[in-house]
Amino acid sequence: EPITISIAVGTAAVLTGYLSYPRFYCYWSECCEPERPLNQSGLQADLRGKFFGQHLAQEVIYRALSGFMTNTNPKKPLALSLHGWSGTGKNFVSKIIADNIYGLGMNSKFVHLFVATHHFPHDSNLQQYKDQLHTWIRGNVTLCPRNLFIFDEMDKMHPELINAIKPFLEYYDNIDGVSYRNSIFIFLSNGGGDLITRKVLDFWTEGKQREDLQLQDFESVISLGIFNNQKSGFWHSSLIDKNLIDFFVPFLPLEYRHVKQCIIAEMQHRGKPVNMELVEKVAREMTYYPKEQKLFSDKGCKTVSAKLDFYL
Ligand SMILES: Nc1ncnc2c1ncn2[C@@H]1O[C@H](COP(=O)(O)OP(=O)(O)OP(=O)(O)O)[C@@H](O)[C@H]1O
């Protein structure tokens, strides 16, 4: 029978291809690639070209990721804690990171986003959340050592749940046979945003350039500030007193000029011609604080897209 012979030959060809090239199926399905390198030039270009007003975050994130991902034997997973007011780019930069590690970016099955108010809304279910989180992290890292776990709204997460993540961030070689040392944990929080703003404002009042702010100006301010703040999510957190966070990354409040950059980027992203009159109009519509100086956009760039929907 010609049809039966064709099916047999086809099956044999597929099987031969599969056996002689075991990663054949990776063309159709995303495979675990523990050795997959970071797209360093892509990350640098994205941070420089798309991410505005955050010279410190740009530098720390690039250095931390490049160093971690070129280290063949890291002693612990990478833990970054991003702090700043709403709309300053914490989720945005997390997406940039995911895009430059995994081909499918945030849609990769190795990227896991947890949003405190969505995934862990009720304190009464705390034990259940802890168990689920534990199982989820362990299960995924067992399948593939290189995972990216992003925890948004850390300031709204129960401190006990945060402490439950602690064993995964430790300097252990492995826990019950699973090594977490190649994974990346990113924590996003508004906690410390007030301290960051105060520092930037003081700097401005002294007549200094924002771009001269150094990471050292912020690291202890943030870690001590959130450790001692009951509402930060990190209140007396063992992640801090055991030094398990590798970098505290400050997100500075965005100024009028940065808001304009966001508007221009959004117009270009939508394939629209850049209309500078509209750019100024939308930027002026945003509200700025403190009341006297009107320096920083109180929603960062967060409402830019919605405002453009209205005008475009
Ligand atoms: N620094 C920035 N550079 C470029 N675009 C930005 C920046 N900050 C914010 N945006 C734009 O604003 C949108 C909202 O920002 P994003 O969600 O990253 O803020 P966030 O800091 O995570 O806020 P929240 O604390 O409320 O979650 C982004 O999708 C991006 O388009």
TrEMBL record:
Residues 254-311 form the Torsin-1A C-terminal domain. The keyword Nucleotide-binding applies. The keyword Repeat does not apply. It comes from the Eukaryota. One of its GO terms (cellular component) is endoplasmic reticulum lumen. ATP binds at G84, W85, S86, G87, T88, G89, K90, N91. GO terms for molecular function: ATP binding; ATP hydrolysis activity; kinesin binding. InterPro entries: ClpA/B, P-loop_NTPase, TOR1A_C, Torsin, Torsin_1/2. SUPFAM superfamilies: P-loop containing nucleoside triphosphate hydrolases. It is found in: Endoplasmic reticulum lumen. Its main location: endoplasmic reticulum. Keywords: ATP-binding, Endoplasmic reticulum, Glycoprotein, Nucleotide-binding, Signal. GO terms for biological process: nuclear membrane organization; protein localization to nucleus. PANTHER family: TORSIN (PTHR10760), TORSIN-1B (PTHR10760:SF14). Belongs to the ClpA/ClpB family. Torsin subfamily. This is Torsin.
